[in-house]
TrEMBL record:
Biased composition regions of type Low complexity, renumbered to the chain: 188-219
Signal peptide range: none
Compartments in which it is found: Cytoplasm; Cytoplasmic vesicle, COPI-coated vesicle membrane; Golgi apparatus membrane
Identification of the protein by name: Coatomer subunit delta
Membrane disposition: Peripheral membrane protein
Coiled-coil region(s): 136-176
Main location: cytoplasm
InterPro entries for this protein: Coatomer_dsu, Longin-like_dom_sf
UniProt organism field: Wallemia hederae
Lineage of origin: Eukaryota, Fungi, Dikarya, Basidiomycota, Wallemiomycotina
One GO CC annotation: Golgi membrane
UniProt KW keywords: Coiled coil, Cytoplasm, Cytoplasmic vesicle, ER-Golgi transport, Golgi apparatus, Membrane, Protein transport, Transport
Subunit structure: Oligomeric complex that consists of at least the alpha, beta, beta', gamma, delta, epsilon and zeta subunits.
Similarity comment text for this entry: Belongs to the adaptor complexes medium subunit family. Delta-COP subfamily.
Length: 237
């Protein structure tokens, strides 16, 4: 058998989800599904309708249709058997035959259908095998989610560690800057203290050297007075 497409549509032929297994354009699939309800005879109990080139194998789901689109060369008995497996796995997933349920579980339905049909041909998987494969995929998906969450947590911890390291660097830089400023203040204060005595020492030296000049002049005047006395003595003689 060759399954061209699997779909769930409304009773009016509006597609809700569709999975193509052969190269069919979207417009082509939508056109086939829109024309499909018009081909069903009123009160028909059959589950297949045909056109010139296409066969529709379908099953009503309350207000919906589960449809397999195949070519006319496909084995109709295998088509009906495949439809039965599609129907059982679809009902098991969506629980309720409503548009909202189909749309909410669209991804799960497509994954399950891919376990039944591969490249347009039926895989030899029973309902139990399909469910087992879906559970395995679900388990692997959970593992991947756990790994992704762990990576996210590790990334957050790394960001926190870097933030703490940067904060410590800022505090260390501030501490070193404060110590450097304090040392510069001490150096400038000590320099001022060392300069003040040297400035005061200069007037002292000038004060000690100044009285030496009057001493020389007074001694000179004393010797002059002695010469005057000698002149007076000569006159007396």
């Amino acid at each position: 058998m060759t399954v061209l497409s699997a779909a769930i549509s409304t009773k009016s032929g509006k597609p809700l989800i569709s999975r193509q297994y052969k190269q069919l354009t979207r417009s082509r699939v939508e056109g086939l599904l829109n024309s499909f309800p018009k081909l069903i005879p009123l009160g028909s109990q059959h589950t297949t309708v045909e056109t010139e080139n296409i066969r529709f194998v379908y099953q009503p789901l309350d207000e919906l249709y589960l449809v397999l689109i195949t070519n006319k060369g496909s084995n109709i008995l295998q088509d009906i058997e495949s439809l039965s497996l599609f129907s059982r796995i679809t009902i098991d997933i969506i629980k309720q035959h409503t548009q909202d349920a189909v749309i909410a579980h669209a991804f799960d339905l497509l994954v399950a259908w891919d376990e039944i049909i591969s490249l347009g041909y039926r895989d030899n998987n029973s309902l139990i095998q399909v469910k087992s494969l879906l559970e395995m995929e679900s388990h692997e998906e959970k593992i991947q989610e756990i790994i992704a969450k762990n990576k996210e947590m590790e990334a957050k911890e790394e960001l926190k560690r870097r933030a703490r390291a940067l904060e410590m660097q800022r505090r260390e830089a501030a501490r070193i800057g404060a110590q450097t400023g304090l040392s510069a203040g001490k150096y400038s204060s000590s320099s001022e203290l060392n300069l003040s005595p040297s400035i005061d020492a200069r007037p002292t030296e000038a004060a000690t050297s100044a009285p030496t000049q009057p001493t020389q002049s007074s001694s000179f005047k004393g010797s002059g007075m002695k010469l005057g006395k000698k002149k007076t003595t000569i006159d007396n003689f």
